[in-house]
């Protein structure tokens, strides 16, 4: 189950990145406003109408895009128009002013690597490097153009490696913050939003179920075979749960040996069937992989969503069903029924004397 993918599956990742980098975008807009706009106007005045037009058109497309990202929280015209106008402006400016204009290309290609999706950045930079080198040839010695191209290629390669490492680090940190490090299941802090969304869906008739899953007598596994074996057993449990439910179901580790499985639009009958399969596969898996710890079973409490019910009460109902499963001898799957509330209250009162 790829919970991370589930949590971002409907979003456009590039747009999300751009939206997160609004401060950088604002800075880039400011820098281009104080450089490209005066340059564009100057070129119009000195008769370089084509260059002046493309520089100002680029600036205009950038302003439109940045305003859309700030106001509408999405791209309006996309990457292509500003990048196309930028490429033309660079080539024209080197064609007109020669070597002096080549210095501008370095910050431009670096910014493209940092702000534009990888493939588009590579394509745009390839076009800029190739086009600007061709435009520079009549103005300087071949060796100077060769050095210019090599320096640009080195800059762009370093920027790609750095940004690749940063994005990987970002992904790893995000995973660390939402997932349990032992099992890879989502941690309990991710649960509230998902349960709330599922409760909201129940209001629209899209009910589903949750299952609270607890390993039976897990303390004995630790006591008899050691903590490491306990960890291995927990991992097998999570693996088997993941193997026997759908990608769209979400598994949370609540702590210790307890898990909550949030099914995606699933009836009680189907949830019970999946729970039985999970329990059987866990028993089978541990017997096969760690025969010394065989005999590990699960107790599972299932509760169906009720429209407009608080998520805490929903989990509480699954907990009561789990309590029933434990007290009926463990290795059981119980579905919440209203009498669970009464029985549990009586049991608690009896326990308190
Ligand atoms: N190996 C290991 N043990 C853990 C971990 N987290 C909690 N535990 C242990 O898991 C055990 C949980 O035991 P309980 O849930 O109290 O009880 P149980 O033995 O499972 O009994 P029942 O739930 O009543 O069937 C405790 O001994 C904890 O120390 C972990 O990450 N790894």
UniProtKB/TrEMBL annotation:
<keyword id="KW-0472">Membrane</keyword>
<keyword id="KW-0812">Transmembrane</keyword>
<feature type="domain" description="GGDEF">
    <location>
        <begin position="206"/>
        <end position="338"/>
    </location>
</feature>
<keyword id="KW-1133">Transmembrane helix</keyword>
<feature type="transmembrane region" description="Helical">
    <location>
        <begin position="123"/>
        <end position="142"/>
    </location>
</feature>
<feature type="transmembrane region" description="Helical">
    <location>
        <begin position="148"/>
        <end position="166"/>
    </location>
</feature>
<dbReference type="InterPro" id="IPR043128">
    <property type="entry name" value="Rev_trsase/Diguanyl_cyclase"/>
</dbReference>
<dbReference type="InterPro" id="IPR029787">
    <property type="entry name" value="Nucleotide_cyclase"/>
</dbReference>
<dbReference type="InterPro" id="IPR050469">
    <property type="entry name" value="Diguanylate_Cyclase"/>
</dbReference>
<feature type="transmembrane region" description="Helical">
    <location>
        <begin position="51"/>
        <end position="70"/>
    </location>
</feature>
<dbReference type="Pfam" id="PF00990">
    <property type="entry name" value="GGDEF"/>
</dbReference>
<feature type="transmembrane region" description="Helical">
    <location>
        <begin position="77"/>
        <end position="94"/>
    </location>
</feature>
<dbReference type="InterPro" id="IPR000160">
    <property type="entry name" value="GGDEF_dom"/>
</dbReference>
<feature type="transmembrane region" description="Helical">
    <location>
        <begin position="24"/>
        <end position="45"/>
    </location>
</feature>
<protein>
    <recommendedName>
        <fullName>diguanylate cyclase</fullName>
        <ecNumber>2.7.7.65</ecNumber>
    </recommendedName>
</protein>
């Amino acid at each position: 189950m790829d919970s991370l993918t589930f949590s971002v599956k409907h979003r456009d990742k590039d747009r999300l990145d751009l939206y997160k980098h609004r401060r950088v975008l604002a800075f880039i807009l400011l820098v281009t406003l104080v450089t490209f706009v005066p340059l564009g106007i100057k070129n119009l005045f000195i008769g370089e109408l084509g260059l002046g037009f493309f520089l100002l058109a680029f600036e205009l497309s950038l302003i439109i895009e940045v305003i859309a990202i700030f106001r509408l929280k999405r791209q309006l015209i996309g990457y292509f128009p500003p990048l196309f106008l930028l490429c033309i402006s660079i080539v024209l400016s080197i064609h007109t002013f020669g070597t002096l204009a080549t210095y501008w290309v370095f910050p431009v290609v670096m910014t493209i690597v940092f702000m534009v999706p990888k493939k588009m950045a590579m394509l745009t930079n390839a076009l800029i490097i190739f086009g600007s080198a061709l435009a520079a040839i009549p103005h300087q010695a071949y060796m100077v153009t060769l050095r210019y191209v090599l320096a640009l290629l080195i800059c762009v390669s370093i920027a790609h490696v750095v940004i690749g490492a940063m994005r990987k680090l970002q992904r790893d940190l995000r995973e660390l913050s939402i997932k349990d490090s032992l099992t890879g299941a989502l941690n309990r802090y991710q649960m509230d939003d998902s349960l709330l969304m599922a409760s909201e869906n129940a209001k629209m008739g899209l009910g589903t179920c949750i299952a609270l899953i607890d390993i039976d007598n897990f303390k004995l596994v630790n006591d008899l075979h050691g903590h490491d074996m306990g960890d291995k057993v927990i991992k097998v449990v999570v693996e088997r749960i993941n193997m026997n439910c759908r990608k769209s179901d979400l598994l949370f580790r609540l702590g210790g040996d307890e898990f909550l499985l949030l099914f995606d639009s699933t009836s009680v009958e189907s949830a019970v069937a999946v729970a039985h399969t999970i329990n059987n596969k866990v028993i089978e898996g541990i017997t096969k992989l760690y025969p010394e710890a065989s005999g590990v079973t699960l107790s599972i409490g299932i509760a169906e969503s009720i429209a407009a019910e608080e998520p805490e009460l929903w989990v509480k109902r699954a907990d009561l069903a789990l309590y029933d499963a434990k007290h009926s001898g463990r290795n059981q799957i119980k579905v919440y029924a209203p009498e669970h509330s009464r029985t549990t209250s009586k049991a608690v009162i009896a326990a308190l004397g």
